[in-house]
Amino acid sequence: MSQAETTRRIGVALLGSSFMGRAHSRGLDAVRTLEDHPAAVPALRAICGRDQKKLDGMRDRYGWERTSTDWRALVEDPEIEVFDNAASNHLHAEPTIAAARAGKHVICEKPLGRDAAETRKMLEAVETAGVLHMCAFNYRFLPAIRFARELIERGDIGAPRQFRSRFLLGSGAVPGEAETAWRLRRETAGSGVVGDLLAHHVDVARYLVGEFTAVGGATRTWGPQRAGVEVDVEDAVVATVEFASGAIGTMEAARVLPGQVLESAVAIDGSEGSVTFDVRSPNELTFADARGSTTISVTAPEHPFAELWWPRGHGIGWGDSFSHELRHFLGAVAGAWEVAPHGATFLDGLRCAEVCDAVLAAATSGHRTEI
Ligand SMILES: NC(=O)c1ccc[n+]([C@@H]2O[C@H](COP(=O)([O-])OP(=O)(O)OC[C@H]3O[C@@H](n4cnc5c(N)ncnc54)[C@H](O)[C@@H]3O)[C@@H](O)[C@H]2O)c1
């Protein structure tokens, strides 16, 4: 990791002040204090949302210099070098494209667009503008996922043969809990659990196993009315997947299961061994082969991101992946490293969107869909 000679101070604007607005604000805040000599630190120039009271609280808590309820006021600001979009899905494309055209480097929450067509427009805009771009797939910045990639790259599990993932939530089944209305409508969200949850694991699968070639799928909407709106997106999905490497797999995601608080688990079985991860134990990776199974505490000095944190065994939390992710993007803007391969670029966001669209198409047609 870096011991930069000089630290670049990079002006950041953040769109979004709720769940992800907090996660990104906290992540940016931590970037300022993680290292003695960071490649870059953020200057928290402006935060934008709809609720002025909430924005005032975010300003007081994290030190945002100013607040705005109009994202258009931010994209032309010469003091802002990075535009960080953590708003709801229908506000990803337009502000991100406007920011890129104004010369800002852009990082945007997943799913990038509401479908592959919208995502492609975002990719074209950043490529035309020549700005750096990253899709905020934070799982790549969990130490155990990064370590899984190291194990796979050095051949510990052999050739990947099977991939399994489950992203199961109960929030939609608990009245008054986390569900926000925009997530339940195609117009604002694009899709339901496919873009919201499955997309995370599609990206993890691409990061660890490689490109998808075909999918099958089934979806269900348990609706009908939640958070004051008619639900018109899928609440559950089960998919079969095939990879260019020859590996196959199954993926499922759901968010209206009262018996599930949060399970987000990934397993890869290879010709020599297997790795298993669940975000409920974010510092652990289980490795197994014919000799048995061992759960590795991914907190030793030689493990990914460990030098930023505590002595062996103490571990970090899910929220800290946002610090790693934002540190990575700011470091790339400062020229310390490239966004890829560890950061997901907008091209990765597009590849993920193509897989998500194919799962939805397969569910509608009832046929296996090639990508
Ligand atoms: N990486 C992750 O683990 C993760 C987790 C949750 C959500 N997300 C993604 O983050 C994004 C935000 O999700 P969330 O859970 O924070 O949603 P949320 O409903 O909690 O927040 C949405 C935010 O968008 C803002 N917003 C909406 N319309 C606006 C407007 N016209 N002007 C200004 N601000 C506006 C709201 O003020 C709010 O701050 C989504 O794209 C979601 O898919 C990612």
Q: Can you give the helix content as a percent range? A: 25-40%
CATH C-level of the largest domain:
Alpha Beta
How much of the sequence lies in strands comes to: 25-35%
Give the number of helices: 10
Order of helices and strands: EHEHEHEHEHEHEHHEEEEEEEEEHHE
How far the N terminus sits from the C terminus, by CA atoms, comes to: 36 Å
* Class of secondary structure makeup: alpha/beta
Q: Mean pLDDT across all residues, rounded?
A: 96
Chemical compounds bound to the protein: nicotinamide-adenine-dinucleotide
Total beta strand runs: 17
**Main beta-sheet strand count, sense and barrel state:** 9 strands, mixed
Strand order of the largest sheet: 16-15-14-13-7-12-11-8-17
General description of the model:
There is one protein chain. This protein is of the alpha/beta class. The chain has 2 domains: about 10-140, 3-Layer(aba) Sandwich (Rossmann fold); about 140-310 and about 340-370, Dihydrodipicolinate Reductase, domain 2 (2-Layer Sandwich). It has helices at about 20-30, 50-60, 70-75, 95-100, 115-130, 145-155, 185-190, 195-210, 320-335, 345-365; strands at about 10-15, 40-50, 65-70, 80-85, 105-110, 135, 160-170, 210-220, 225, 230, 235-245, 250-255, 260-270, 275-280, 285-290, 290-295, 370. The strands form 3 sheets. The chain has a 9-stranded mixed sheet with strand order 16-15-14-13-7-12-11-8-17. Strands 3-2-1-4-5-6 form a 6-stranded parallel sheet, sandwiched between helices. The model has no long low-confidence stretch (mean pLDDT about 95). The structure holds nicotinamide-adenine-dinucleotide. Nicotinamide-adenine-dinucleotide binds near residues 19, 49 and 50.
